[in-house]
Design a protein that fits this description.
Radius of gyration: 21 Å
Distance between the termini: 23 Å
CATH topology of the largest domain: Growth Hormone, Chain: A
Structural class: mainly alpha
CATH architecture of the largest domain: Up-down Bundle
Number of domains: 2
Helix content: over 70%
């Protein structure tokens, strides 16, 4: 195979895996109102189809990232894709809520695909191509979500809902085949033993944190169940931290994670994830509100999904642009611009929430900022961590985005349920969501200012990449 084509094929194979993962994360969102009737479950039980995917993704992303650094990234990537494909088969062949929850849990493990892919691109591609490649790979999280929901709405309206999961099965097999044929195994490995105790502790902490965050609006934020889970998370965290600081090969290197360049990047990732997800959730619901609310457009579920298509195209087109900006000015500058654009998009949405075209424009502006942010975050992480910890470090960064999305889902559900009339949520409820999401983007901008400037060696690398671009 010609040398010039090999990097493109590797990027194409890995990026397609990232898009597929994001699609599987979001395809059930349009289905949720219909699933109680389709499965015989209650709305609360059906909501686990979103919660379990979030939970398994959050738990397995740092674990599989660490395993990839130690045992081979390609091997672990195939494991994650295989798990996602098996989960899709389970969802495709059954209408049992229990089977669907198990299948969705297996699908969630594929969230590790993106950090594994980013680290593989760093290992395999020529240095001058890495920045552009990781920009595209990281942006697949948003691209897949933006295209996944419109695709799901079309299938829900015109075909049996199991078709969604059969489509995931076919794409999963294609992705597995592409990785086997095109992507080589990385020779870079981390020495030491896998920290099983640390993995179990991290899993327990994330479970106790994310389950009440996701279900708090349904259970009640002051309920004994919610408070019990949160109390357990508070108790587990310091014990896990002590173990990580004492372990020879910890699951998460907290000393590296505490460096300002890593710490502030991860905190910014959490807020970017929050701000991005608010755009997706609010847009899909806002345009469907009935005209009787006084502001609603009464759009169909298909139209609500199609409103997100321009966001997907914007993210796809801006990923290479973001890479060029990072090559010329550094990923820190790109993240500053990105968070500023996201905040601007929400400012637009505050005054244009009663016009379909204006809603689409505002959502697209937010998506444009998200594309730039998602491309800059892994580049900032890779500048700050050893090459042997790339997958684990990017896995933690992806985890922070997922936690931000979980928090956003809880906040949006609580706000829309609190500010209501007989016709549904008030316009002020949506405006409150936009204010909170825009403020999150501004706080992320402030955190980005705290990220240290690159060292001279990193500046030299950036100049070389910029010259190549």
């Amino acid at each position: 195979m010609p040398t010039a084509r090999r990097p493109r094929l590797i990027l194409t194979a890995l990026a397609s895996c990232g898009v597929l993962m994001a699609v599987t994360q979001t395809i059930v969102i349009p289905l949720l109102p219909r699933l109680p009737a389709l499965t015989g479950g209650t709305p609360t039980d059906v909501s686990w189809l979103l919660t379990v995917t979030l939970l398994t993704g959050a738990v397995f992303t740092p674990l599989l990232g660490r395993a990839g650094d130690m045992y081979g990234k390609r091997r672990v990537l195939l494991l994650a894709l295989g798990s996602m494909t098996i989960g899709s088969v389970l969802c495709a062949v059954s209408s049992s809520l229990t089977v669907l929850i198990v299948g969705r849990g297996l699908q969630g493990t594929a969230l590790a695909v993106v950090p594994l892919g980013v680290s593989m691109l760093r290992d395999e591609l020529p240095r001058e191509r890495v920045v552009a490649a990781i920009a595209m790979m990281s942006a697949t999280l948003g691209i897949g979500a933006a295209f996944g929901i419109p695709l799901a709405t079309l299938v829900v309206e015109h075909a049996d809902w199991h078709t969604l999961f059969w489509l995931c099965v076919v794409l999963g097999v294609v992705a597995l085949t592409a990785v086997v044929l095109v992507v080589p195994e990385s020779p870079i490995r981390t020495n030491g033993r896998f920290d099983l105790v640390g993995a179990l502790g991290l899993s327990a902490f994330l479970g106790c944190l994310l389950v009440p965050v996701s279900k708090g609006s349904a259970w009640g934020w002051g309920s004994p169940t919610t408070l019990g889970f949160l109390a357990a998370a508070v108790l587990i965290l310091p014990l896990w931290t002590v173990h990580q600081l004492r372990a020879r090969t910890p699951m998460v290197d907290l000393r590296v994670s505490a460096r300002p360049a890593v710490l502030f990047t991860n905190l910014a990732a959490l807020l970017v994830g929050f701000s991005f997800y608010a755009n997706t959730l609010a847009t899909a619901q806002l345009v469907q509100e009935p005209v009787s609310t006084g502001y609603g457009l009464g759009a169909s579920i298909v139209v609500s999904g199609l409103c997100l298509l321009p966001s997907g195209f914007a993210m796809m087109l801006l990923s290479p642009v973001s890479a060029r900006v990072s090559a010329a000015r550094g990923p820190r500058f790109t993240l500053l611009v990105a968070t500023g654009v996201m905040a601007t998009g929400y400012a637009v949405r505050l005054f244009t929430s009663e016009s379909l075209i204006a809603i689409v424009i505002g959502a697209t502006v937010v998506a444009a900022g998200t594309a730039m942010a998602y491309s800059a975050l892994p580049a900032l992480i890779m500048h700050a961590v050893p090459v042997t910890e790339t997958a684990a470090a990017n896995g933690l960064n992806t985890l922070m985005r997922s936690i931000g999305q979980a928090m956003c889902s809880a906040v949006v559900a609580t706000v829309l349920a609190s500010l209501v009339t007989v016709h549904g949520p008030t316009l002020s409820a949506y405006l409150t969501v936009f204010v909170v999401a825009g403020a999150s983007a501004l706080v992320a901008l402030g955190l980005t200012l705290l990220i240290p400037a690159p060292r001279p060696a990193q500046v030299e690398d950036r100049v070389l990449v910029g010259a190549a671009a």
